[in-house]
Amino acid sequence: MTIRHYLIIFMLVFFPTVLASQAQDEDEENPHEEMVEDEFVCLDCHTDVPKKGETSPTYFLVDKPSENCLGCHDETQHAGAKEHDGQKAEYLPGDENGEIACFTCHDPHPEGVIEGRVVYEAELSERSKQFIEYIVTPELTEAVGYEMKPDLSVTEVYLREPTNKLCITCHETPINKDWRNHPPWNKFTDMYTY
Amino acid sequence: MNRTIAIIAFSVLMICFIACRSQGTGDSENMKSNAPSDPIVNYSHEVHKNVMEKEGFDCFVCHPMNVEVEEELTPEEMIKISNQSFFPGKETCHFCHFNPQAGNVAPSQCDMCHINMVDIQPKNHNFNWTSKHAVFSKADEKSCQSCHAPVFCQDCHKRRDLPTIRVHDRNFRFIHGIEARANPRECGNCHQVTFCDTCHQQGGYDY
């Protein structure tokens, strides 16, 4: 065997190994996915692996509930996140002050971690996807001055309810459904007659 | 004499009031506001819920949380973009409410949402606009169509049923003085001052 043969064998062994380890690193960067297989990933966020049935207002988190997610995610993780900041989380889990946090809408645990827990993708109708792509996004791009891109297949977001149901859990409850106190339509249609 | 002074004072006050209300609307010369003055007051989720569901539109259509900018931006810029993304823009509302497609039955009266129509009225739609509008409409037809449906032009330019009066009710001539004093700018949208003078300077209509 010549040096060239040794070199080819080395490349065939070395590069796949490096690529595989890189892929593994990327997987490990997402503790949400990892926790299904490895319960010690829980310790990334919790002070102890919570036992079944245990409850605590702090969820045994390493930081305050309001700050726990901010170690990896930021407050503007997605459009509209900041706008919910400081609002009361009356019907879904809230932070230490009862206010909306990331985990109000998103369950940090994928299915299979907590028994009986179901999580959902951000599923949109075809018409909604097209509308966002062809009507909303171009207008936004023009309005904000930056190239905006829609993410039309949002899967790993672990929503606590299906998309629309999650929104109306707070926005159209029996208490809030008329919160805007909408006046009758004819008030407006009759205003500008000459 | 006292009555004349009172009328003049009233007219001046009205002009000042209208001018004040018009100030600060629109981003720049001839630009319209993109949103109603206060959408929270006159928008109802309850009213829209059923029709949106029927049309297959999700909450994200108006509140798209799944749009993102790929560039690295400062937190302040991101918050600004988040806010702008989270609330619907003009095209989103107008897709249903200003879209003369066959089968679209969504109400399209502008004043249903734009309660103060001055907010969306271009600044060049002012005195003597009726005489001037031809040049502008030929130069930029699209600009007209951003507010007016084609039927709006046809209503004047192509209609033949003359007995129907489009703008003023019958016998408006007898009550126009009240309207003119209440809102002189409204008259100026179509008429020049000389239009008034043609009658009022000849005597006999001095009231």
**Strand share of the residues of chain B?**
under 5%
Q: What is the global morphology of chain B?
A: elongated
Tell me the number of strands of chain A. 3
Uncertain regions spanning at least 5 consecutive residues of chain A: 175-194
Q: Unreliable stretches of chain B, pLDDT < 50, 5 or more residues?
A: 18-33
The number of distinct helices of chain B, counting runs of at least 4 residues, comes to: 11
What is the distance, rounded to the nearest whole angstrom, between the alpha carbons of the first and last residues of chain B? 12 Å
Q: What is the first-to-last residue Cα distance of chain A?
A: 99 Å
Number of strands of chain B: 1
Main β sheet profile of chain B:
none
Helix content of chain B: 40-55%
Largest interface: A-B, 49 and 53 residues
Q: Mind explaining what this structure looks like?
A:
The complex is a heterodimer of chains A (194) and B (207). Chain A is mainly alpha-helical and 194 residues long. Chain A has one domain. Chain A is extended and about 75 Å long. In chain A, 17% of the residues are buried. Chain B is mostly helical and 207 residues long. Chain B folds into two domains: 82 residues, no CATH class; 87 residues, no CATH class. Chain B is 50% helix and 1% strand. The relative contact order of chain B is 0.11. The chains are: A mainly alpha (194), B mainly alpha (207). Chains A and B meet through helix 4, helix 6, strand 2 and helix 7 of A and helix 2, helix 3, strand 1, helix 4 and helix 5 of B. Strand 2 of chain A pairs antiparallel with strand 1 of chain B, so a sheet runs across the interface.
